[in-house]
Amino acid sequence: MRCSLAASGVESSCRIRRPGRSAPARSQGFLHSPPASVSASPPPVPRGGSGSGAGTMFTSTGSSGLYKAPVSKSLLLVPSALSLLLALVLPHSQRFFVYDLQAVKDDLQIWRLISGRIICLDLKDTFCSSLLIYNFRIFERRYGSRKFASFLLGSWVLSAVGDFILVEAVGYSFGVTAARNLPSGFLAPVFALFVPFYCSIPRVQVAHILGPLSITNKTLIYILGLQLFTSGSYIWIVAISGLVSGICYNSRMLQVHEVLYVPSWMAKFCAWTLEPLFSSSEPTSEARVGMGATVDIQRQQRMELLDRQLMLSQFAQVRRQRQQQGGMINWNRLFPPLRQRRNVNYQDGRRSEQPASPPLEVSEEQVARLMEMGFSRGDALEALRASNNDLNVATHFLLQH
What we know:
- By secondary structure, this protein is mainly α.
- The protein has helices at residues 70-88, 101-106, 112-115, 123-135, 137-143, 145-174, 188-192, 194-200, 219-229, 235-250, 264-273, 275-278, 295-325, 336-339, 364-372, 377-386, 391-400, and strands at 205-208, 214-216.
- Helix 1 (70-88) packs antiparallel against helix 4 (123-135) and helix 6 (145-174) packs across helix 10.
């Protein structure tokens, strides 16, 4: 399924909802269990797919705002508000939030490792990091609030060690004292999020410039990251340590994810105390399907929208039959009209009979990930086969229905 691309974010813009029924009862608690907060919005277009020309450099995250992203919302509101307060009202208190590794080392001011790495004292850094966190909220919707917070916590701790190592290496190699000049703020985890952004978010081409160079839906995110990277003299130290910590945590190197994570009791406590403050209501209106620049593109987008509506109708009917008779959903009855459809506009009206393809090999790792979310092995296998081994599409339909 190909979805139209709209502005701001990095996720598919079409959402499929069963009429008359709300989202599944799998909770969306603040820092709750990882499967509970998996986004119900559909995944991005598969890697390698071409855009329709209607997109811009940012793609929509399905539902606008911070719905199902309480951790991202808290990181946007609290540090930004404190940064503005320190800059405009309490400038004399900024000394307590300076990220000074020399003071940590010589005077044992360990508290600076916390206060100096949460609030940005430079408003430019606050603005850029807030925009990046807003765009990276897709990971909280995709993996859940608890896993997202665990990634931020792990990269935040690992990057502190990386800062010490890099500062000592720079001082030993070049005789430069950088310990007192590191930028303050929650910057290292923001840079760490570029690792899953590069690895898991699809690259959708928007336009060609200068021959082989092209603009994609990820271009402005990288430009924004480059702006943050060049905002200070020694911010590159924080950026490198953040990227390295993101690689270590994302690749599960040295099993750090088993040590640095948000425990379940803390997740439950935050769900009880903080969720009412930082949860957002579901948007009442959905983003419209973007219209292409040509009549052919518009016609193709309308056909894709009809495909999705037809598939939803078929799935609802089979779901009702399953609830009445029991047994497994025959996913192959639902997906062939979508998977086997060809664009008749570019075939001059000719249709060719396609031979049936052999059953797809299903990755056991993807099956295990779906089973961790609470789905049966049978449903996981059928969903993965029907979605051409696209874990995101399979997860979306299993969660929605």
